[in-house]
Amino acid sequence: MIVIPAIDLKEGKCVRLLQGRMEDATVYSDNPEDTAKRWVAEGAELLHIVDLDGAFAGGMKNISAIEAIRKAIRIPIEVGGGIRDMERIDQLLSFGVNRIILGTVAVERPELVKEACKKYPGKIIVGIDAKNGFVATKGWVEVTQVKAKELALKMQEYGATGIIYTDISKDGMLTGPNIEATREMVESLNIPVIASGGISSIDDIKKLLKIKNLWGAITGKAIYTGALDLREAIRLSKTWS
Predict the structure, then answer these.
(1) Is residue 10 within 8 Å of residue 65, measured between CB atoms?
(2) Would you state the pLDDT for residue 172?
(3) What are the distances in angstroms from CA 209 to CA 45, 48, 179, 206?
(4) Longest CA pairwise span in the chain (Å)
(5) What is the dihedral of CA 160, 136, 14, 36, to 10 degrees?
(6) Out of 46-55, 131-140, 151-160, 201-210, which region has the weakest mean confidence (pLDDT)?
(7) In terms of pTM, does the model score above 0.90?
(8) How many Å separate Cα 177 from the centre of its chain?
(9) Within the chain, where are the H helices?
(10) pLDDT value at position 176?
C-alpha cells in the first residue's frame, strides 16, 4: 500500500475542508508548489491534487496552480475536481498530469469515462465518494440513489485503471477511515482501490495495511495538522508484512 499526500486547491491556495464544506476551509499554504516539494522531500511517490473550486462549480479554476506543481516536482501526480469533458482531460495530460480522476461525470455521463479510458488507457481513475453506501456528487452537495459498489463495478468494466473510494462522513474529521466499507470495495473489484477520508493517525494506517490488496491510501488533514507523520507512514507501509 502506498501513502499518498493530498493537496486540495481553493483560489490557488492549499486548503483542507471539513466534511467537504467550502465554508469550513482552513488555509495551510499560499504556495502549493512548496507544499508539493515538502511531501516529495518526505518520501511521497504520488501526489493527489483536487481542484475544489472545480468540484463545486463544475469547471476547473486552479489550472495554473496545478501546472506550477507539475513543474516543481518529478513524481507522478493525479488530478481531479471539475473535470467534465474530454478537452479538459486532453489539456491536463498535455502538460504532464499522469492520471485523471473523474467523479461526478461517472454518474452523470458515464459514456465520457468509457471514451476517456479508451483514448487514454491506464490514465483514468474514478473517484467514488459515498455516504451510507450511496454515491455523492458535485463536491458532495448531492447524494444520489446510485450504490457505490455498483458504480465501481461499472467503471471497472469501462476500463478505469483504479477507484478512489472516499467515505464522506469520515473525511476531514480525523475519526478514522471506514475499514469495513473499504475492505468490501477492495474485495469486489479486480482493479486497484485507493482509500480516502478520515485517516487521523499512524494507527489508521496500520488498520488500512491489514486490508489485503488495498493499493493506496490518501491522507490530507492529518499530515497538515501534524497528527500523522508522513515519513513514518510511508516507512511503515514499505516495511509492513
Answers:
(1) no
(2) 64
(3) 17, 19, 10, 5
(4) 43
(5) -20
(6) 131-140
(7) yes
(8) 14
(9) 32-41, 52-57, 63-72, 86-94, 104-108, 110-119, 148-158, 179-188, 202-209, 221-225, 230-239
(10) 87
Of 241, 174, 238, the closest CA to residue 3 belongs to 238
Q: How far is the C-alpha of 143 from the C-alpha of 131, rounded, in Å? A: 7
Assign 3-class secondary structure to 68-126: HHHHHCCCCEEEECCCCCHHHHHHHHHCCCCEEEECHHHHHCHHHHHHHHHHCCCCEEE
pLDDT confidence tier of residue 65, bands split at 50, 70 and 90: very high
CB 137 within 8 A of CB 103: yes
Cα separation of 213 and 159, whole Å?
A: 19
Q: Is there a contact between 193 and 185 (Cβ–Cβ < 8 Å)?
A: yes
Spatial separation of the C-alpha atoms in residues 27 and 22, rounded to whole Å: 11
Tell me which residue has cell 489539456. 91
What is the C-alpha to C-alpha distance for residues 196 and 166, in angstroms, rounded to an integer?
A: 5
CA distance 160 to 190: 11
For residues 81 and 55, is the Cβ–Cβ distance under 8 A?
Answer: yes
Q: Which of 127, 72, 126 is nearest to 96 (CA)?
A: 72
What pLDDT, in 10s, does the model give residues 171-195? 667 678 999 999 999 999 999 999 9
- Positions annotated as catalytic residues are 8, 129
Cα 182 to the center of its chain, rounded Å: 14
